[in-house]
């Protein structure tokens, strides 16, 4: 993406300027909140297919996220192939069994009880798509030499947030899954050592009998998550 000879600053006028009055801003902010508060993490999926171009559009949205030095240190792998999803599930469940069989402390396991999770991850094969998020710890110039990426976790986390919002906006449900360790994903998906897998996102439509844990509806009030100095 970057060439050594092109590392210079050049300013252009702000494109895509948006002008709203205060009333319009309030309406847009409330509309987006109303949409996002209906986002739920879902573990029960139908087998209804999701078109590839929908997934591509949502990942394209993730690619517009801000990043350290604009290096865009992320890569997304979208998986619909049943055999590959099964391979990912088998490896993820192996790690999860270690987690639930003593790898996690008692406090962590206790904290998960209201969520109702366990080592079985059928959503990894039932959901029509898995999206694996990779963080690129370093990049390469066109001549093959390395360059450092900056604020990689922060940049990738922002892009992942964009992706989740885009998928929800497209009418889809998601589940974020973080087996630890996840190094098996590099081998399974042919990704280089410069990339670290950070998350598996199951994507699809909810099953007709889908449920969520009641605790998931308990969100902290604004007063607990916001401090204002004006």
From TrEMBL:
InterPro entries: Nitroreductase, Nitroreductase-like, Nitroreductase/BluB
Gene3D superfamilies: NADH Oxidase (3.40.109.10)
UniProt keyword annotations, A-Z: Flavoprotein, FMN, Oxidoreductase
GO molecular function ontology, one term from the record: oxidoreductase activity
Superkingdom per UniProt: Bacteria
Keyword Coiled coil belongs to the record: no
A Pfam match: Nitroreductase
Location of the Nitroreductase domain: 37-205
Protein name per UniProt: Nitroreductase
Organism from which the protein derives: Sedimentitalea nanhaiensis
């Amino acid at each position: 993406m970057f060439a050594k000879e092109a590392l210079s600053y050049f300013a252009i006028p702000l494109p895509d300027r948006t002008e709203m009055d205060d009333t319009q801003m309030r309406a847009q902010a409330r509309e987006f909140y109303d949409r996002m508060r209906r986002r739920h993490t879902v573990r029960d999926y139908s087998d209804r297919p999701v078109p590839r171009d929908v997934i591509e559009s949502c990942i394209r949205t993730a690619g517009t996220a801000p990043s350290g030095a604009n290096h865009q240190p992320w890569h997304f792998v979208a998986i619909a192939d049943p055999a590959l999803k099964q391979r990912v599930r088998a490896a993820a469940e192996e790690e999860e069994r270690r987690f639930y069989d003593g790898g996690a402390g008692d406090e962590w396991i206790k904290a998960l009880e209201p969520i109702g999770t366990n080592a079985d991850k059928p959503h990894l094969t039932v959901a029509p798509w898995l999206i694996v998020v990779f963080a690129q710890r370093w990049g390469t110039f066109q001549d093959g030499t390395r360059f450092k990426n900056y604020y990689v976790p922060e940049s990738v986390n922002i892009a992942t947030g964009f992706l989740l919002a885009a998928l929800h906006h497209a009418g889809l449900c998601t589940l974020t899954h973080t087996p630890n360790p996840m190094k098996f994903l590099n081998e399974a998906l042919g990704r280089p050592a410069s990339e670290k897998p950070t998350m598996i996102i199951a994507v699809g439509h909810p099953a007709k009998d889908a449920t969520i844990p009641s605790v998931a509806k308990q969100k902290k009030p604004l007063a607990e998550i916001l401090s204002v100095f004006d």
